[in-house]
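Students often ask what a holo structure prediction actually looks like on paper. The answer is less mysterious than it sounds. You provide the chain, you provide the ligand, and the output is a string of discrete structure tokens encoding the 3D arrangement of the protein together with 5CA.
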Amino acid sequence: MSTLERKRWSKRYGEWFRNVLIEAGIMDYRYPIKGCGVWMPYGFKIRKNVFQILRDLLDSTGHSETLFPLMIPETSLVKESVHVKSFEEECFWVTKGGLTPLKVKYALRPTSETVIAPMLKLWIRSHADLPIRLYQIVNIFRYETKATRPLIRMREVASFKEAHTSHATREDAEAQVREAVEVYKKFFNAIGVPYSISQRPDWDKFAGAIYTLSFDMITPDGRTLQIGTVHNLGQNFSKAFDITFETEKGMQGHVWQTCYGISGRAIAAVLSVHGDDNGVVLPPNVAPIQVIVVPIPYKKKERQINQACESIGTTLLQADLKVELDLRADLTPGSKFYYWELRGIPLRIEVGPKDLENNEATIIRRDTLEKQTCKINELVETVQKLIEKMTQDIQQRSWQWMKDRIHRVDSLEEAKQLLRKRAGIVEVLWCSHAECGHQLEEAVDARVLGVPTDTEEKVSGKCVVCGRRAENVVRVAIAY
Ligand code: 5CA
Ligand code: ZN
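The corresponding structure tokens follow.
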């Protein structure tokens, strides 16, 4: 993809994203409730692949999948005082059973700390029961008041992976936070999505957490999107719900907890970072179909060409590739190309009369649109190599793209200019006082993402706001 194409497409990113979701058969957002979308068959397959990668990573690191109820009695939700303050306004409330008003109303889960806590209280007796690492992939509901956007800001977040862990010590919970960050890094690397990791400022952490680490990506229009968060909950919920255990020394203690979540935004991220004017570009491990075979019909040779395509399909299938044939007779090859490019299929194989004659096939990469011919007997090897190369190239390109959009500046004016141009993430030095953080947000008309935790840097210099000695680098961006 040329940078020119990237530029045009990124200028109208919001519109591009909305259109591509429907046109490529991923999500239909026209459901008659705001903030609810329909996963269409093709989109659902992408969703399944993406979440399978996450499931495998969690399953292999000591997490167990569970399923808790959707509804939370108000009496549970109110127990943690900070949590409820933030979430009560964001909940959808069930107030009636049939026509009968409920004595205690139920919230549809906006997240599940207060669903899981009363059960942990019953399950945890002693240090031998710890750690407990649970996760579930469910829908959650949030009455979002900011502009809703498909996948990015839903009111029914139909794809929400939440993990909840409990530990015997503060140190164990700390270690779990680091482990969760590693899991998320592996996940985003696997789907080729670049990220920065920052510790959110205190005024923007998860309600009920001690601190929040956030994964943020840069969207094609130069804003940022929070694509995953890891929270250290300390003992806030365990004290509110009285989740105690007998320690090794025979004392009673409250458990230490963490939680971390990833939503359909991760899918928005995959679709967004790799896409272009022709549609989405799917990394081969996420694509429901990796290779689409399209015959180029030629008079009197139709049957032979179709047969050659079928034989290619069988060969690739035997090599464990996800391959399909497009033998639709009512469509021209051109409209088939358009159709599959829009859907982001990594490789297209064409067989025309000339290919047939030379015992060859033509292969086109979706990401670069480069064409090459290949002898039929070398096809499997070539396709496998291309898939590997494309996986690496996609990842490398998107990381480079992101790195080019992180800017270090030393004045508010420069920061403001860059952010106004939607140039990505801006880093400045900061004294770490909340006061200056708020002033910074106001001065540059953007959000503080937080202090980097993915780089190690000895900070020396002055706070960009007050001129006192700086303690940290801080990232600022126009966030979605
Ligand atoms: N209980 C914690 C960890 S599971 C929690 O709810 N954290 S959260 O509020 O930060 O949400 C986790 C992730 O879900 C966020 O990082 C964000 O990427 C995504 N998310 C949050 N709200 C929405 C929404 N309305 N639509 C789509 N994704 C969302
Ligand atoms: Zn300052």
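The radius of gyration is 25 Å.
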